Every structure is written in C-alpha cells, then in structure tokens.
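Bug: token stream looks shifted between consecutive jobs. Job 1:
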Amino acid sequence: MMCILQVSLAIVEASVNRLCSIVYHTKLFLRTKKWATICIASQWTTGIILSFPTILFNDSRCSDQLWKAIYRFVMVVIIPSIICLVNNMMIFKYVRSSTNRIQTSLENAKNNAQQHQHLSRRDLYLLRHMIVMFCIFVVGWSPIYICGAINIVTSITVTTRFALIIISELSLLALISNLFLYNHELRRYFREKICHRH
C-alpha cells in the first residue's frame, strides 16, 4: 500500500511545490535543501501513516477485502486529485489576478489590445495544461483501482488487469514528461549540468 501511495503523493508534492514556486516565489526558504528534505520526509511520513489502517485491520483469512480496495482508491486517486485540483485552482487564480494587474497598468499603453490578447492566451494555456494534467492522472489511475474493487465481487481477466496497469504506467510517464517539459527552470538546470560536464 505504501509503495502505491508514493506515486500519488509524489504528484501531490509536485503540485504543492509548483504552487509554492509560483505564488510564493519571493520566499528564499522554498529554494533551499532544507525545504526539499522537509518535502521528501513529509511525503514518506504521510505514506506510512496512510498505510496503517490496511495493516492494523488486516484479516488474514481474506486475501483481499472490499473496504481495502475502496480505501486504496480513495487514498490513491480521489484525495490526491482533490488536492491537485485545489492547488491548480489557486495557481490559476494567482496567475489570473497577476494578469489583471498587468492589464490595468498597461491600459494607457499603445498596444493594449495586443497585450490583452497575449495575456489571455497565456491564461488559457495554463488552464488547459492544468486540466490535461488532472485528466491524465484521474483517467490513467482510476480504472486499475476500480477494477481492484470490482475484482473482489466478480472475476476480471488477467489481460484486462494487465491492460489497466499499462494505462496507469503510461499516464504516470505522461505526467512526468509533461512536468519536465513544462518546467523551464528544471530543463535549464539539467542543460547546465550536462553542458558543464563535457
């Protein structure tokens, strides 16, 4: 259970860090190794704590129980989705309010119409990106856990389960790739590290 949770918790942690880097970009503490250590420690601590119920209330007579499948689905998909959605909404609200402040200050500029269009396009791009990330996570990870709950009641073929596992892994790969491609600072960091080695 704890290993399964770590994937979702890592995605939640990434959304929290993205929120902090955008909304609280002036806080120097958020760029320190101490902050990174706190994030990693909190992720693993949360994973351990959330795994306790499945260990403490384990019935050795049953190979799997319905409440465990529902608990896994809620902890791995539902709650992380809600947290990521809230974080993304806060990011969008902050970026939108920043855009409105810039637009107000540029009202008397000659190219106000062009600037307004550019900023609106940026807001729409950010919103579209966040919606795509949210959908990739929910659509990729929900089926395997719903299948796990259904499998307790009725039998599901191994091929179906294998296909759903592949879908969840592909969605994880898509999320990691998307975060890497969208994060300009991370790309620049890797470029600098690779270029300085040669």
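Job 2, same session, no restart:
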Amino acid sequence: MPDGIVIIPTYNEKENIGRIVKNVFSLQRNFHILVVDDNSPDGTAEIVKDLQKKFENRLFLLERREKSGLGTAYIAGFKWVLKREYKYIFQMDADFSHNPNDLIRLYNACKREGADVAIGSRYKTGVNVVNWPMSRVLLSWMASKYVRLITAMPVEDTTAGFVCYKRKVLERIHLDKIKFVGYAFQIEMKFKAYLAKFNIVEVPVIFTDRTRGASKMSGSIIWEAVFGVVKMKFYSVFNKMTI
C-alpha cells in the first residue's frame, strides 16, 4: 500500500475525471486516489465507478448527497483518509489546473525535505499562471497579498488549492471547527497549520486554467474570503480560534 493519497473533489467533471485519474496512476510514484463527488448530475461518479474496475483497490469514491462547498468536500475526504494508514494527503483539482507531475515534487518536499505542509505555489517565483485573463490573475495575486498582510503568514500563495499535508497536520487541526466552505477554506487550513507552528514550504508550480468543463468560482466565494480573513485573524488575536 502506498503512503500517499490524492483527494480530488468533483462536481460535473465528466470531461476531466477519467483523464486525471489515469494521469495520476501513470506517475512513477504510486499514489491512491479518493474522488469526493457531490452528486454530479453529469454522471461523474458513474465514470469513477467504471474506472474502479480497472484500478481496483487504488481508486476510491466517496459520494455525497448534494453540492455543499469545496471545504466540506475536502473535510469529508480528510476524515475518510484519517481512518486509513496514509501518511501524506494531497488535495488537487480535477481539471488539470494542477499538473499531476507536480505531486511527486510536493511529496518529496514533505517526505525528504522536512515540510509538514507543501504548497504548489503560483506566486513563489513571480506569477506562474497560464490561460487566465489579466483581471483574474490580478484578483488572485492581490487576494494572496491581502491575506498575507492580514494574517502575517509567510506564504506567497495563500489561496492555493494544490497542497500536500503530512498526516500529523490533519490530526492536529480540528476539522469540525473549520468555518469556511469556499475559497476561504484554503486560507483557513494554511492559517491553522501556521498557528500550530507546522513547517510550511512553497514549491513553485505552473497553474494552467481548465480547458474543459466550467469553473466553480463565484462572487460569493470571493467575498467569503475577503471578509472571512479579517474575522479569522481577529479570533486568533484574542485566542478564540480553535486549531
């Protein structure tokens, strides 16, 4: 059994899920995959079930009743994983915005180089984003700068969704106390790891916008992050935040 598992949340990803699964399984390092599907009406879960016949005991599916936020999907996945013996837990998107080849680099950062949290960072060495309009690049870059300013985290890409956690990090963070379900979930997880004094390392990656399927980003998700960060920092200052 491998010591690493990749959690991939899905909602209407039929155009991508088969390709991403096969790509991860083609890597030189052996990983398992857990797909967390939020009752996709396009049949994503059915595609995964068909793939399970080929990748028996390597590909797993956790089906949820409804679409209830990226954060809750990951938390459900984390809880599933922590009942098993995996030591390195990854989160990544299904749409190839995160290059599966970089999983090995994140793994090595935690396994060999002492990181407790390894972030696939778009902004560690400049702005490494492909196929985004300039307005979205600026929004994302400024959001990360804003979060860094408010929280004082020494992290360039605070909103990154491509991450490897050592098991002990997820065991330390009280998953039931995570408050944010959208964009801000990524920030809250990093902030709690930072408050718990885990070693957070950024690994430069190139982020490529999806070419198939539709983005799940919305205005409400962005506003959750903008206002949520201030509240999160406030609670941490007055020791009201549970790690």
